[in-house]
Automatic annotation (TrEMBL):
Belongs to the LysR transcriptional regulatory family. Signal peptide: none annotated. Pfam families: HTH_1, LysR_substrate. The keyword Lyase does not apply. InterPro entries: LysR-type_TF_proteobact-type, LysR_HTH_N, LysR_subst-bd, WH-like_DNA-bd_sf, WH_DNA-bd_sf. This is DNA-binding transcriptional regulator, LysR family. The keyword DNA-binding applies. Keywords: DNA-binding, Transcription, Transcription regulation.
Amino acid sequence: MRVDANDLLLFTRIAEDGSFTKAADRLDFPASTLSRRIAALEQQLGERLFIRTTRKMTITPFGQAILRHTQQIAAEITAIDALIEHRSIVPSGKLRVSLPGDFTQALISEFLADFIDDYPQITLDIDVSQRRVDMIAEGFDLALRIGALADDASLAARLLGHFELGLYAAPRYLHHAAKIRQPGDLLAHPLLRLHSDNTPLNLSSGQQQWQGELATKTLANSPNILVNLALRGAGVTRIAAHSVQHYVESGELIRVLPEWQSKKRPVWVVFPATRLMPSRTRIFIDSLVRRFEQLS
């Protein structure tokens, strides 16, 4: 015999309210439905749970014995509901995040520090790697990706924004190197670039377009390395504008050909499409979206 737990909870509510009518009003159930469900439950159990007359309802001794157990079940369910509600209000637990090696460390470090301060109950497990991790197999909750995404039905994505790319060099390099007055002049200069930036250089200025393949002097998977090399006069680097803003404002780097623009690169947050999203993951994504909105 398998008893429906929902019928046991209905029995508990009726017993506590002392009336089928009161329980029906509280549960927003027709009283006739409650009566039918309890009759079926009594049939299953083989004994009466209530004795009802036109004037009153009393619980049988067997019903009292059942009630002690069902009240415990109801209390446990209430505790579970409270736990779920608390966890949704105060996100907690471990969050596994994959970051690409070419993501700007200054930007993400500032964001992560603020997130840790705002949500101390969440533990971050961060993997920084140039490889595209298998999010499902390796148990990652989300990943940040730059550029075009692979077609993968097991993953969902949300666009965070776009990185504006620019060409930058140190004043001392530009002082001694060949002058750069137009895009074609770049062909005489060594390029410091990211591994992921592996396409020909495409620049536009109004209706004008220019494309060229620059000689690469240094490849790296870290924008920080490229910025530091550029600061030391090693050549021209193409990097996200916000990652060098401080150095441009201080005069340590100069934007080369500022009137010529590179195509912006999309930035995505990617997460498993088949999972129920925990509140900690949702909070992290929403926080990322707000941070990128501030940058735009």
